[in-house]
Amino acid sequence: MRLAELLECLDGCLTADVAVKETEINGIQMDSRKIIPGNIFVAITGFNMDGHRFIKDAIEKGAAAVIGEEDLELEVPYFRVADSRLALGKLASAFYHYPSRKRKVIGITGTNGKTTVSYMLKHILESAGKTVSLFGTVSYVVNKEVYKPTNTTPDALQLQGLLAQSMDEYAILEVSSHALVQSRAEGLEIDYGLFTNLSHDHLDYHQTMEKYFKVKTQMFNYLKPEGKAIVSEISDWGCRMSEELAQRKIPSLTLSDSKSTDLSIDRIKLNGITQFTVTIKGEKFKVDLPCPGLHNVYNAALAFLTAYDIGINPGQIVRALEEFPGVPGRFEMISHPNGAIFIIDYAHTRDAIEYCLHTAKQHHARQITHIYGFRGGRDASKREDMVKASSSLCDQFILTLDDLNGVPEEEMIEEMHALNSRYGYQKGLVITDRTAAIQFAWENARNGDWVFITGKGPEEYKTDFILPVSSDKEALLYLQETCAEEQVV
Q: Any idea where the Mur ligase N-terminal catalytic domain is (predicted)?
């Protein structure tokens, strides 16, 4: 692509001579180590590193042009912009010929439920014969090929590149608040923007719930002219989001379990089963959901409303939800040989933990045990509330290590002991080795018990523990296999 053509997306910042305008650009990079001759280098001011420091390296490797935020004079064409991150998203979209215009794009934001809703929607659409790309916490899936995720939402360059590769009719993306602040969604054009809920999380990054909410509203800036918002009004924040979108004159559909909305939920049964009825345009549809819990009722209802508006037959939607296979690391159940149930979940907020623990009570768990820890370098202000939730809803909880991310292990252990002393009430234990905590619960579980292991979901460990495993699921499968071998002996 000619440089002049590419830079049209930056609102006419190109003022160079004709020769420069005719320069051919064969790729975009924000990492100077990946530059090959003919690339354009975009210098990003990062949180840990400033890309402007590597402009010289990029030029030496053959960068044909450079974009940056500083006032510089270089031996190659250089164009100054106010925000390099915004520029990167726009450039990537233009370079790949605006790939989100070639398919239906569904963006999902909110604190909890993004992953489950995305997988439910993918399953519904594929059950109806559609092809679907997926970008989220668990994996990226394009043309049925699975990629390991770098972030919940890829950076703009990777996202636009993968969308350009995709031959799929639909693309579903989890859009995190970090991605919105960091302009990773810039250049994206969305047909449906979904809002699940909002709860206390990431306040180390956003400072206040109000700022956190305002960031979430930014996703709707990327709606196509004919795009729609779909909002769950189960929470007060959902009602706030509907009001915000109405003020901005953005067309919206809503769902609720307590009032008249585009889709309403009633006849919810959680007593050992998960069953509910949705009413939409005067018609009622009963759903028997294989995923337990009230939170999954809300997730399924949001997926139902979206698929219905897309045009999927409601009978097909019901059948797909009733056959939904679940999500890796999201309320993933593994049985103990003696009848206890172990659940792996990504829950890392008080709301998400309470959803999990209430579900166990609704299914008549004999005893509830909760194993979890706190991730270093993340929102520490929510930890006390998480321990309070466990203390009030569990028969036993075990505090253990999660990813330290540079925080000294002794500091994290000290905090766990302090919280346990304050709220343990003889229910709490501290077992610092995560796999040893899981093994303790496994060896002490009895028929009818429910044991939750939360915080990591399908993620791999970043440190070594006692058991020779790399994830919570592997730890349970290892213990399960060990039990089977002992029974054979």
A: 24-96
